Structures are given as C-alpha cells and as structure tokens.
Amino acid sequence: MTAFEDPTSRHTLKIREITGDSHDAAVVARLHMSLFGYGPVGQLGEGFLSRFCYTKLIREGLIRAAVFEVDGEPAGFVAYTTLAVTFHRLALRKYPLHAGGALIYSMVRSPRVVLSVLKALHLMVSRRSQQEELGSDPCAEILAFGVLPQYRDREFVRRTGIRISQRLVEHATTFFKQNGLSEARAVVDTTNRPTLLFYRMLGASLEPYVQAGISSRLVRLPLIPTEGLPVEDAGHEEQAHPD
Questions:
Q1: 128-133: long-range contacts (C-beta < 8 A, 24 or more apart)?
Q2: In this structure, is residue 242 part of a structural domain?
Q3: What is the pLDDT of residues 112-126, one digit of tens each?
Q4: Could you list the residue range(s) of the whole structural domain that residue 155 is in?
C-alpha cells in the first residue's frame, strides 16, 4: 500500500494493491463497469469481472490490479500484467470451469450478456492471431485504468496536488521496472483522444493498430523516469480497452 501526504487538504489518499478476495474484486468490478461497461470484456457483466477476472486471474498471478482510494472510498483503478500476450489463453486453458461458471452467473443477472460473448471471443482470437506482432511474454501491458469523474476534475487536482491517473500508471510501471522490463504497452481506441494525449505526455509513442476489428493505437511507453505532469494539464482520461 502506498500513501500520499496531502498538506493542502484533509483527504487521505492511498493506492492499495488487491489480492483477489471477493470484496476487493467487487469494488474493482464496479469501477470497471462504471468506466468501461461498453468494452468487449465489460459487456460480459459485473458478475464475470468480479467472479473471474478480479479474483481467479489475480490469485493465479495472470493479472494484477490496484485501487486508488480517497478518504477510504474507491476513486480509480489500474489493471496490468506482464503476460500481455498469453494471459487470455492461459486463463481459459487452465480455468474453463471457473470462466464458464462466472459467465453463466453474469448471464443470469443480465441476459444481454449473451450478445456480448462473441465480441469477447473475437478479442481473444484477435490477440492470438497477432502474437508475432506483439512478441512474447514477459510483455508489460496496462490493461485498463480509469478515474471516476469527481476525482479527475481540475479542482480536485489543484486542491490535492494529486493526479490520480498518473499515480495509477506509475504504480503499474514501477512493478514492470522491478521485473526488469523496459517498455509497457497499452491498446487504446483512436476515438479516446484524452487517454492518447495523456500517454503522449508521459513520453509514449503511438502506432496504428487494429484489435478485434476496432481501429486503435498501440501505445509504447518507455519505462524510464519521467517528471510529474503539471496540474494545469489535468483533464478527463480513461483507457478505452480494459481487456
């Protein structure tokens, strides 16, 4: 857990790595749905996210996730992995029953999930077909990060001196660097300009990329020390593809 001093306000700010227990999984799943319910995995429903993605996959070390809390309340999260190329495939190969059970649970809660299964499968097949382009594991990827609107406006950033989006990305990249990786990647929709601008400000390059038929940008972020972004640059940002 990382705490941040906040001398200009009464807020208590901290990042907390989650371990895959059911309570934390539910918290991250709610954040994920609030920010990315439109995505191919988000459309599989909160039940699938909480019962499989943010429990089983985290417990087994296939992905990691952390929550940023303000006064004990979740304000944003980041999900990341060093197995960007294979974690989808490994998850389904090792735990088909867990995935199937979580999906059925999600369908029962929200029948519309049935229509989203093909989109999610398309995403996984797309990843597999692009393995040569993506390389091999270990491969660092920020799978998703997002901050609730009330915690990313200019007033909050000025009041606290904390840009939560940057802290979340730094949390993930610190882990990558500790594991000897020199670059992190992310996949972002071309329409998600605030996030693309955010990554560019961190020194990332952007390459044209198509994932599951969606026009995107492959973000390549060198894992070198970067100076903090100025408060004046604060805006609305969220990653488009939390896959």
A1: 128/88, 128/89, 130/211, 131/85
A2: no
A3: 655 555 555 555 555
A4: 2-233
